Amino acid sequence: MLLPSDNKEIIKGEIADYWYDCNNGILYSYSKSPTRTIKNITENIALVKQITGNKIVPLLIYLSNSPVPDKATRKFSTEQLPNVYKAMAMVSKPGLSKFIMNILFKLKQPPIPMKSFTDDIQAREWLKQYL
Questions:
Q1: CB 28 within 8 A of CB 20
Q2: Is 72 within 8 Å of 38 (Cβ atoms)?
Q3: Could you give the dihedral angle defined by the CA atoms of residues 8, 3, 40 and 95, in that order, rounded to the nearest 10 degrees?
Q4: CB 47, CB 71: distance < 8 Å
Q5: N- to C-terminal Cα distance for the chain?
Q6: How many Cα atoms are found within 13 Å in the side-chain-facing hemisphere of 120?
């Protein structure tokens, strides 16, 4: 797991903790397990925008197991992705990110480029094309 350099702090949120690498423009997210709601996703988007200075950035997210959100929350989350992220690299144990992708985007393409990884170095390399 990639961790921030010594001079970077981890910013804590309800559904994820973050650090932003200003040198390469990638936002790192350490997912937490509470149930996602429209309210906590809205608050999380505000936090991300504050961290990135309202820039739309590539995201490298370390996924955790969390309950499946309701349909309205899944729809809201999907609609908001392009307003915050250029691309998303999901790092997890084999199968978890595929499961999440199937839940969120079963019938349509994701609104931003997304790819699953089990290795964060490969995930970061893939994201560099979106910088």
A1: yes
A2: yes
A3: 160
A4: no
A5: 21
A6: 14
The model's pLDDT over 68-93, given as tens digits with 9 standing for 90+, comes to 899 999 999 999 999 999 999 999 88
Give me 47's structure tokens: 């936090």
Helix axes 71-84, 96-104, angle to 10 degrees: 100
- Helix or strand holding residue 77 (H, E): helix 71-84
| Cβ neighbours around 97 below 10 Å, total | 21
Residues 6+ apart with CB under 8 A from 126: 89, 115, 117
Q: How does DSSP classify residue 129?
A: G
d(CA 87, CA 56): 9
pTM for the complete prediction?
A: 0.91
Task: Provide the b/e sequence for 45-67 (b: ≥16 CB within 10 Å).
Answer: bebbeebbeeebbbbbbbbeeee
Separation between Cα atoms, residue 109 and residue 35, nearest integer Å = 23
pLDDT in tens, 118-130: 999 999 999 999 9
How does strand 26-31 pair with strand 16-21?
antiparallel
